[in-house]
Amino acid sequence: xxxxxPDAASSDAAxxxxxxxxxxxxxxxxxxxxxxxxxxxAMTFMVVVGFVTIIPQVFLEEPExxxxxxxxxxxxxxxxxxxxxxxxxxxxxxxxxxxxxAGTLGPFFRRWDARYFAYLRHCGxxxxxxxxxxxxxxxxxxxRRFDREEGAIxxxxxxxxxx
Length: 163
Description:
By secondary structure, the protein is mainly α. The chain is 80% helix and 0% strand.
């Protein structure tokens, strides 16, 4: 029945150790897989963030006014608000007089926004800054509506006049 030989006794004792060894190896493989998945996710995240932040800085042109903060060293907040207002009104007049397409508004407003945010950083929130923002957004909507409705009529008249 029972084998009294030393080989038989050692094989029974070795069986639980083999079981433990397999479990440890299986846990090690699982741990490596989890670590590899975590590492791959972290590397993917870093590459995506790197491309999203670096590519625009290298290949896309910075809007005018990004460095406008430096211009405020000697500048006056009231004077700058007047300049921003004049820029808006001048651009609106040009847009209506020349009946420019609405696509030309985007770049202008991006540059204006950069100057405006530099003004806000320097001068802070005030009634003037709120009024400037209100003017900017209302003017943009008005110019887009003009281009869509009256601008089409003016372009049509220009075509008829040139015939």
